[in-house]
Structure formats: C-alpha cells, structure tokens
C-alpha cells in the first residue's frame, strides 16, 4: 500500500488515513510494517507479523487471550493501538523460550496439564509470568485475584494455579 | 481515519483545536472496543501517550493534582494513601492488564454512568481540569456529567487532570458485578467522611443517566453521625442513610440488573461503606 503523500507531515504527528510505516519492537527484533491508524497491536502481530501465538478471543478486553507485555508489563493487545507501541518493547509468547529451552512457566503448564483446548494458554502464560514479577502471588487467593483477567473456558484453573505455584516456589523463582 | 500524535501538551491542545472531531486515546481500553467492532469511526485519533505532562501528579496548594494519563495501576501503587477511595475503585477496574493501561482521564472522557472512578471522584469532591488553546478551567465533578456519555467538555478541550483535596477523609468504595474481574458495574457506591469539616460525600455509579450524588443522604448523615464521641453509628441512622442513597438513584431496568435491584443493592452498599469508613477511618488504603 502506498503512503498517502497528501497527508504526509504537513503538521507534526499527523499520519494516515492509509497504511503508513510503523516500527515495532517485538521480542527484541525490529519490524517495519505498514498499518492503518486503527489497527490494534493484536491484529498487527497476527495479520502483519504472522505471530499467531497471541490469540484473539473476544477483541474487547474481557478474555485475556491476547495478553502480551509492553515494556515488561502485561497488557491486552486487542485494546492497544499498534501505532502507540512505537518506541516500546513488546514481548509475546513466541519470545519467552530461550535458546530452545521452554520458559519454566511453559514447562510447568505442561507438567501440570494446565490446559485442555489450549486457546487461552499463551495469554495465561504471559499473565502468569508477569504476575510473579509483580509479586502478587503469595496466597492462592492472590493468584486467583491477579489471574482473574484471563478466562479458561475449559476450567483448567486448578492446574493453572498449580503451575504458577510451582514456578513461584522454585529455587530460581522462574 | 487520520492519526495525530502530539509530542507535548501545547501541541496536543493546538492539534485538538485544529481537529475538534479527533477522538483522544490514551490507554485505549475503552476507545479500542468501539474501533474493533466498528461502532465508532472517528475522523482522527489523537494519541496522548507521548504527552508526558499527563502522567505526572503532585500537590497544588490544598489539592492533589493527578494527570489524566496516570494509570489505575499507578493510582493503586503510588497514591493509595492520598486517594484511598479512588484506589479502592481502581482495584475493581477491569483486570491487571486493563489497569496497566487504563486511566481516569479516559474514564472521564467516556463519561459513562458506569465508570468506576466517577463515584469516588464525586464523594471526594474532585475537580476536573479541562484545557484548550483558549485556556484552562477547573469544573467540579458534580457539574461535569450532563448525560449518558456526555459532559461539559467542549470539542476543542482535552482533560488535563483531576484534583482532589490533598487531605482525604475516610473513604470507601463498593461495587456489585457478576464476576470479580472485567465487569461493568451493576451499581457502585463511594463514600467520604471528613471528620475535620464534619461533612459527608457520596457517589453513585451505574444507577442513573450520569454518576450521581446522594445529597439528601449526605446532609442526613452529616447531621446524625456521632462525630464528637466517635461512638457506634445507630442502626436506624445507617438504615435511613441506605434508604436515602437508594432513593437518590435514578436507575433503569437493563441487561445488568433491574431498577429495583439497583436501589436495594445501593442501600446495602451504602450501609456497608458507612460501617467500614466509620470504624476504620484510616483503613481505606
């Protein structure tokens, strides 16, 4: 898609309405893609960067399946404007395994059978790792409260919580 | 759709003046839902996330001034002692992911009757700071809302900040919803008891065309509370206070609840909030 020259920066910060170059930093790599202004980070990841690990459940912020990190904090990519992510570091489920080794939380989800259909799992894992970083996982009630933004329709919650407890209690803290 | 991304506050005001139809977006947690489902197609989006002035907070005389772009997470982490009622309300907003992005400025901009911040702002006697290239004005939040998703904000204005008294009273917040996360309130209630001035502040959410105060309930309670002795609140006083709060609501029957249920629940929430605030004046944090 061509850049719309007629709306090129006659005024500071003005872009659009057609596809415009955007630079996104995802999992430590820099990508230059063309997006319309209205595109969510979720659609940018899935449809433009072919990173389909981040799932689209509700597209309105209620299910948590699209959870990613922005500058280390968990956010909902469906409710984050892709344009506003320029200059920020995005991390997705594709980026958390290191050197071919699963992240301890990924391994714990496998060990505890913390999923059935698996659709919510990337969001659950991104949320779970962030939860431990936030330090809000002391009690089971804390875990339930601070994982409450991630829905699992298969009801794997007890196993998800067991996986989180295991990583929390591991010597290296995950 | 065009995209406007001012680098600072002066530029943001100039851009808003030049594009009064531009829809401001900060965290995006409200605006993006409408965009994703094509319920709104604004001519332009005005991204305020580069405007760092909006993410500051500090004291301004007798007031605490909080930038419109301060997230709910920061209200909880940094300001729970200074805005106790609002911090309690913030803990009920969405989910941790939403609280990392959502802002009170966005809540005020949407001006939904169900906004979680609004009852706490009403109870605290907050001001909303609106700015444009024409100047800045501070509007009492009691006069800010004019209807469902409508406010006194003019098309060329942006929400700069909100202000609350720097020394808060005993504040509480309670909300009814169907889930512990991601709920739009069926109804909500906020209370502020200021022992120094012996005044009472209230805020009702999701039970009327706008967030509401229960002014009759405030006057009744201020006159009946045993401020001097700090003795127990008589049950009859608590019950009457609840009734007055319920009757101040102007709810409708909708998918989230019936009008009757909302009035009843508000009376219960009001009694509970009163008991919490009176017995633990500093315990709202």
**Rg estimate of chain B, integer Å:** 19 Å
Based on the structure given, which CATH architecture of the largest domain in chain B is correct? 2-Layer Sandwich
Q: Helical residue percent of chain B?
A: 25-40%
**Through-space gap between termini of chain A:** 43 Å
Counting DSSP E segments of at least 2 residues, the number of strands of chain B comes to: 13
User: In CATH, what is the class of the largest domain in chain A?
Assistant: Alpha Beta
Along the chain, the helix and strand elements of chain A come as EEEHEEEHHHH
What assembly state would you assign to the polypeptide chains in this entry? heterodimer
Largest interface in this structure: A-B, 40 and 35 residues
Counted beta strands of chain A: 6
| Domain count of chain B | 2
Order of helices and strands of chain B: EHEHEEEHHHHHEEHEEEEEEHHH
Query: Shape of chain B, please?
Result: globular
The level 1 CATH classification of the largest domain in chain B is: Alpha Beta
Pfam family, one (chain B): FAD_binding_5
InterPro entries (chain B): CO_DH_flav_C, CO_DH_flav_C_dom_sf, Diverse_Substr_Oxidored, FAD-bd_PCMH, FAD-bd_PCMH-like_sf, FAD-bd_PCMH_sub1, FAD-bd_PCMH_sub2, Mopterin_DH_FAD-bd
Keywords (chain B): FAD, Flavoprotein, Oxidoreductase
Protein name (chain B): Carbon-monoxide dehydrogenase medium subunit
